[in-house]
Every structure is written in C-alpha cells, then in structure tokens.
Specification:
Blueprint: H1 2-32, E1 40-44, E2 49-51, H2 60-63, E3 69-75, E4 81-89, E5 100-106, E6 109-115, E7 123-129, E8 133-143, E9 154-163
Antiparallel strand pairs: 1-3, 2-9, 3-8, 4-7, 4-9, 5-6, 5-8
C-alpha cells in the first residue's frame, strides 16, 4: 500500500516538474526566435463614438449607400495576432438593438452581418492580423423600422487583442 502511494506521489511530482520545464523551454524557444508581442493600433476615421446616420427603415442595399463607421486596425508588431471587435451601446440611445441590423466589411469584403440583438458578449467579429499588416473595417448599422427624427442609436467599438498561441480571450 505504501509503495502505491509513493508511486502516485512520485508521478505527480514528476509531472509538475515536467510541466514547468516544458513551459520555460517553450518560452526560451520563442524568445530565441525573436518573437515580439502583437501591437494592435486602432484608428477611428471620425470619432470613438458614432451615431447612425439615418433613422428611417432601410434594406441592406440602402444601408450600404449610407456613410459607415470606419476603423483602421494595424499590427505594428511582427507576430500574428488574434482580435475581437466589440460593440458597446452609449446609454443615451433611444433605439434598441432589436430594431437594428449590421453589416461589417473587412477591406471591402463582408465578414459579418445580422441583428445586433443576437450578438454574444457584444462581439461583432473575431479575426486575425499578421505582423506589419493593416486592415480597414467598415460598419453599417441600420434600422429595420421607421423611427422619429429625434430617436438615435450611438455606439463605440472596442478591441481585444492577443498574440497567436497566447492565452484565450
């Protein structure tokens, strides 16, 4: 019985030591390869918050003729990064998400669309960006029913970014 306990404890200690050595060995290899952190720079063309330009009911094609919210995302580091685009409502908005649809384009290609109310954790999009790369995102948000001229929907975008292979979001 004592030999089984000794074997279990020895195996557990050996496993912990192997894990620690593996972690630091991987870290050393990454540094030796010259890996850098991901450095995501976000630039808004207008302002950090944005109000939808029209409160009249629109189709998708009509919405694409409206002025979008444009954001430039640049990775100035040399490693590939993962990122999330998160939408946050501004409290003074009078239009609710149930009545709003969106289209998100990355470099003129549609990458996400739907109703704002169906987003999980406010995440519009998850993507990746290579080192020394820049992407342009255009977000169109439009109403699916008519509203009074005094009604508004204001929002802002936030970004989370990590290095590929790093801990998850």
């Amino acid at each position: 019985m004592k030999s089984k306990i000794y074997l279990i404890v020895s195996t557990l200690i050996f496993s912990i030591i192997a894990f620690i050595i593996g972690f630091y060995l991987t870290l050393a290899i990454d540094k030796a390869k010259g890996g850098e952190d991901v450095n995501i720079k976000v630039t808004y063309e207008d302002s950090e918050t944005y109000i939808i330009p029209s409160v009249k009911k629109m189709t998708k094609d009509e919405a694409l003729k409206e002025w979008p919210y444009i954001v430039h995302v640049e990775n100035t580091g040399s490693d590939k990064g993962l990122f999330q685009i998160i939408i946050k409502d501004i409290d003074k908005s009078t239009i609710k998400r149930d009545d709003l649809d969106y289209i998100l384009e990355e470099d003129e290609i549609e990458v996400s669309k739907g109703n704002l109310n169906t987003l999980k954790n406010n995440i519009l999009f998850e993507g990746e960006i290579d080192g020394k790369e820049e992407k342009v995102y255009k977000l169109y948000i439009y109403t699916t029913k008519d509203f009074d001229v005094k009604d508004t929907y204001e929002y802002k975008l936030e970004f989370n970014a990590i290095k590929t292979g790093g801990p998850g979001f």
